[in-house]
Amino acid sequence: MAPPPTVSVSSSEPPKLHASDIGSIKAFADSNGLSPIPSSYYSIVEARDDVADHLASSIPVIDFSLLTSDHPQIHADAVSQLGKACADWGFFMVTNHGISEKLMEEVMNKAHEFHNLPVEEKKEFGDKGPWAPIRHGTSFFPQAEKVHFWRDYLKLITSPQFNFPHKPPGFKEVAYDYSRKIRAVARTLLQGISESLGLESKALEDCTGFDSGLQVFAVNLYPPCPQPELALGMPPHTDHGLLTLLYQNEIGGLQVKHDGKWVNVNPLPNCLIANVADQLEAVSNGKCKSILHRAVLNNRNTRISIPLVNGPEVEKEIGPASELLEKEEPLYKTIKYRDYFQLQQEIRFNADKGALDEIRLNRQN
Ligand SMILES: O=C(O)CCC(=O)C(=O)O
Ligand SMILES: [Fe+2]
């Protein structure tokens, strides 16, 4: 086996480049080779041995075909497993989801092709803020962040209206098909979660306006990083929607926080990775946990992840489902999803606080 590439860290400070000047970390990494990374990418990363690898095999797996079974007991068991996964982990893998391997492969290949387009060709999609329907950029939020992240992204609003770049050819078509299939899987999971909370299966869809809900289709690319122990691909965060469904290539990097420890996610072949997001924690009045996650890097392979955030309707007031409040006190304020999303954008650089903390009601006394 070839020895791992080594990096000679010179005594002089590496350059402090700004992500806005870099423009694309993929292009930068291609030309930078094994040179030290700019110090502006140094994240304060907890020691890697803080990763609880013994927990990786305990990540819940939901067999989607059992959830959709006509057999009442099989369905009920799957619902109860799903409810437990959302409560204990806020995170699970979905197998037998019915989306063909061929479609998933096509989406992945086109995602790679997009990021491989010359920088000049992607300029027209440059990020113009969180509500822009098509936005391409690098890092997390270069204008405001203190530390940059080793990632390029493409983000599209694909519901209620479908927006997508016109290149590379064929991407838009497969992405449309994929985004609709993901919405259908998200809807069925939401119905199962609703039942697990003791509600009618359509209760969560109805109270979140899911029929005209927001969907954000993201395509992340993390190039190999010569000093992966110094930087992150994405900082620890929770997602703003209801349920995020993510598909990735075979390269690991996603970590989730469980019982105070980071756990590496090693996805089963062709599965979807699901995480509970903030709005689901709020509508379930805290029964489902929005999970903290981040992306770490490696020095050999390019990682691609394709998370689709499935959220409520943007103009809908979201708070604990009224049926739940017949028996319990609300633990979260009710706030319009649009305003929540805005709030999340504004406070995302406050390391100790997430947007959920802003809407949590203190019921201690
Ligand atoms: O790349 C990953 O695995 C995580 C991506 C993610 O969390 C996000 O885009 O919100
Ligand atoms: Fe995320």
Automatic annotation (TrEMBL):
InterPro entries the UniProt entry points to: DIOX_N, IPNS-like_FE2OG_OXY, IPNS-like_sf, Oxoglu/Fe-dep_dioxygenase_dom, Plant_2OG-oxidoreductases
Origin superkingdom: Eukaryota
Pfam short name (any one): 2OG-FeII_Oxy
Residue span(s) of domain Fe2OG dioxygenase: 212-312
Cited Gene3D superfamilies: B-lactam Antibiotic, Isopenicillin N Synthase, Chain (2.60.120.330)
Record's keyword annotation contains Iron: yes
Keyword Iron: yes
Key words, A-Z: Iron, Metal-binding, Oxidoreductase, Vitamin C
Gene Ontology MF terms: L-ascorbic acid binding; metal ion binding; oxidoreductase activity
PANTHER family documented for this protein: OXOGLUTARATE/IRON-DEPENDENT DIOXYGENASE (PTHR47991)
Family: Belongs to the iron/ascorbate-dependent oxidoreductase family.
UniProt name for this protein: Fe2OG dioxygenase domain-containing protein
